[in-house]
Amino acid sequence: MKKFLALAITMILVLSISAMALADYPDKGITAINPWGAGGGTDNCLRAFCLALEKQLGVTITVDNQTGAGGVIGHEAIADANPDGYTIGMITWELSSYGALDMSEYTYENYIPLCRVNTDAAAITVNTAWAKENNITDLASFIAYCKDHPGEVTMGGSSSGSVWHVAGGYLMNAAGIEIKMIA
To answer: Could you tell me the domains of the chain?
Structure first.
């Protein structure tokens, strides 16, 4: 269970920067690359962060959602940005899976971390009526139900290989249960 409980998404803001005159920075708007779609969790966190940062820096920060290939396009765009300090970006947990999935050779080493913006712990939520009907009151009773009904419980989450899909896999392995994962 420790692996499952420790799994979390961490979104880290990164900066593409070289030796620049920090005294004059910034003297123009900044672009913030988001490797995920508009309106999602990462997008909402990044936009809130950018609004606060705009007030501190006195410049406009434009969020640029560069989506596709399971986040690879945006993550690579952040790493490949001109290192002038005017492009920042949000990297997410999925970056750590790209090498294992043969999707990209980029790793955390391609980025200069600026700050951690958000961490989301994995959670299981169930339908209240279903839980009451099946005597599900906590994680232990949920696991017991799954053991008694292998493959009957469905769990929704993100796409195959993404963070919540992996979290479901950790749960199944740690608890010795079989759940239908729905991407």
So the answer is: 2-121 (3.40.190.150), 128-182 (no CATH)
